[in-house]
Amino acid sequence: MEALVATVLIVVVFMIAGMVLNNLLYNAYRTRSHAPKMRLHELVYLARHHKISLPYSEDYQQWEIHLLKEKETSNNDKGNLLQGTALNRQTGKEITISSFYEK
To answer: In what order do the strands lie in the sheet with 63-69?
Structure first.
C-alpha cells in the first residue's frame, strides 16, 4: 500500500512540474519580441538614410509595423522625430521606439 501511495505522489508531482514547465515555455514563446524590435531599428536606419519613404507600414511575421515622421522639433540640432510601433495581432502587445534623425 505504501508503494502505491508513493507512486501516485510521484506521478502527481511530475504532472504538476510538467504543466508548470509547459506554461512557462508557452508564455516565453508567445511574448518574444526581439525580431520585431530589430526590424524596427532596421527601418529607422533605412529612413535615416532615405531608403524608404515615410509614413511606412508593413506586416512582419505576426506583427504590424508602422513608422511615422512626427512634426519637426523646435530644437534644430536634433532634427526630426521618427516614431516606430509594432503591434502583435494575436496578443495585442505593442512595442514603441522613438529616434531623432537629421533633415
So the answer is: 56-60, 63-69, 80-88, 94-101
Mean pLDDT for the chain overall: 86
Kindly report the backbone phi and psi dihedral angles of residue 86, in degrees, each rounded to the nearest multiple of 5, phi listed first. -130, 125
What's the number of CA atoms in the CB half-sphere (13 Å) around residue 59? 4
Cα angle value 70/33/52 (rounded, 5°): 40
Query: Residue 59: which of 103, 89, 31, 34 has the closest Cα?
Result: 89
In the structure, what pLDDT confidence band is assigned to residue 66 with cuts at 50, 70 and 90? Answer: very high
* Whole-angstrom distance, CA of residue 6 vs CA of residue 1: 9
Give the residue extent of every domain in the chain. 1-30, 34-101
